[in-house]
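Retro notes, structure queue

What went well: the backlog is down to a handful. What didn't: a couple of records were mislabeled last round, so from now on we paste the full input next to the output in the thread. Example, using Rho termination factor from Actinomadura viridis:
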Amino acid sequence: MPRAQIKDEKKYQSLRDKGESKEKAARIANASASQGSKKVGRRGGKSPSYDDWSKDELMRRAREIGISGRSSMNKSELVKALRNH
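Corresponding output:
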């Protein structure tokens, strides 16, 4: 069933199938529907990968978005939790 806030349902589902979060998939699907995927694709990729962040930076970000159990996670677990949020 299509959601009213999602402008490009096919793009949204494709991104969700690839493991993107609901928020990120909706943001990309809506931006590409209104501006075109080529323009959106050129604009992306400005933030460094979580793999390049320090553990302290990952912990801070996990705290900001409310990931539970973060205090007992190692760096790779934090990266996975952040990507899945």
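Agreed that this is the format going forward. Reviewer comment attached to the example: The helical segments are 9-17, 22-35, 37-43, 55-65, 75-84.
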